[in-house]
Design brief:
352 residues; alpha/beta; Aspartate Aminotransferase, domain 2; seven-stranded mixed beta sheet; three-stranded antiparallel beta sheet; 10 strands; 13% strand; disordered C terminus
């Protein structure tokens, strides 16, 4: 008999009441608990499993590959790592260098370290969730942060705030770090942020941990023609097996040569094997396009059902480019801060 009390350490993920659901198995978009009850998984393992739960093709190929591959190597520099780096560089042709890490939070903190070493500046202007490490645990992600980095300043997706912070910290800003939040903001917002970064000599860092491998080939920033210096990736790289990356231009990644970015667990060769297989299957099956198509159909069906049932609800999804969008004003004519307050910046699931 399983003891639910033994999972007390998961209280952070069970904020109001302890979950009575203990999963036993999953297949595709379905999952089964220990009582045999079936659930529809609409999270795709929080985005880490773009091929679906327990994908038989991936499992078979991984098992076959690991019969001939070594699981752990004495160095993180391996053949499989080099192959995966090449594949990711092909997806991000303007960002030719790749540095692998273990988790999304590791990637975001590494990106900050790289930007600071590259520019010699301390300040990071941020918007969105970038993981659970101390430097990012500030309002609204934490009401009582364990540590506050005075050089991390949140502009809350408000371009007026961003402009003021750029001017007020002139010559001290290393990078602007943004999570796209494609369900809340249109691409023009990131495009405008990119234009604002350039005159100040500030690196643009795009956090695509959540959306990168699901949104489009080459990620959100490439899809919408944004010039980014650094991109962070994690969920979806290796079908849920722990692996993340910082992808950057040759110029920006000079900072990686100066910074300490050690990571013991990158000697786990199977993570790179899984990453290569995930990219291979994703390309063959056009996974990103299928996710977009299925998501749009699901969004329409939900919206139709809500309207038919006269339920006041709005279904969020990727917001397309709009000729009528003003990057400094919402449709109601208020500032982008007003947009955040109206729709509420989503509490994006933590980088795991």
């Amino acid at each position: 008999m399983l003891d639910p009390g033994a999972t007390e350490h998961l209280a952070e993920w069970e904020r109001d009441t302890r979950s009575s659901i203990i999963f036993r198995s999953a297949n595709g978009g379905m999952a089964e608990d220990i009582n045999g009850k079936i659930y529809l998984d609409m999270t795709s393992c929080s985005g880490a499993s773009p091929l679906g739960n327990n994908d038989p093709v991936f499992k078979a190929k991984l098992a076959q590959a690991m019969e001939r591959e070594t699981d752990i190597l004495p160095s993180p520099v391996s053949e499989q790592r080099q192959i995966l780096a090449g594949k990711i560089s092909e997806m991000f042709p303007s960002n030719s260098r790749v540095f692998f890490l273990r988790t999304g939070s590791c990637a975001t903190e590494a990106a900050v370290r790289i930007a600071r070493h590259r520019t010699g500046r301390p300040v990071i202007l941020t918007a969105g969730f970038h993981g659970w490490h101390d430097i990012f645990q500030q309002h609204p992600w934490s009401g009582n942060p364990p540590a506050k980095d005075q050089h991390i300043q949140d502009f809350q997706y408000d371009l007026d705030n961003l402009e003021q912070q750029l001017v007020g910290n002139e010559g001290r800003v290393a990078g602007i770090f943004v999570t796209p939040e494609s369900s809340v903001f249109p691409p023009e917002l990131l495009q405008e942020i990119s234009r604002m970064a350039s005159p100040h000599g500030v690196l643009l860092i795009v956090d695509e941990v959540l959306c990168g491998r699901r949104y489009a080939k080459g990620g959100y920033y490439r899809k919408h023609g944004v010039k980014a210096d650094l991109i962070t990736l994690a969920k979806g790289i290796a079908q849920g097996i722990g692996l993340s990356a910082v992808v950057g231009t040759a110029g920006a990644m000079v900072g990686a040569d100066k910074a300490y970015l050690g990571n013991t667990y990158l000697r786990e060769n199977r993570a790179y094997v899984a990453g290569n297989l995930t990219q291979e299957i994703s390309e063959e099956a056009e996974i990103a396009a299928r996710i977009a198509e299925s998501g749009l159909a699901l969004k329409r069906q939900f919206q139709t059902s809500f309207e038919r049932s006269e339920i006041p609800a709005r279904v969020l999804g990727a917001i397309p480019c709009s000729e009528s969008f003003c990057p400094r004003k919402s449709m109601e004519g208020s500032s982008l801060r007003g947009v955040c307050n109206t729709v509420s910046t989503p509490a994006t699931q933590g980088h795991t």
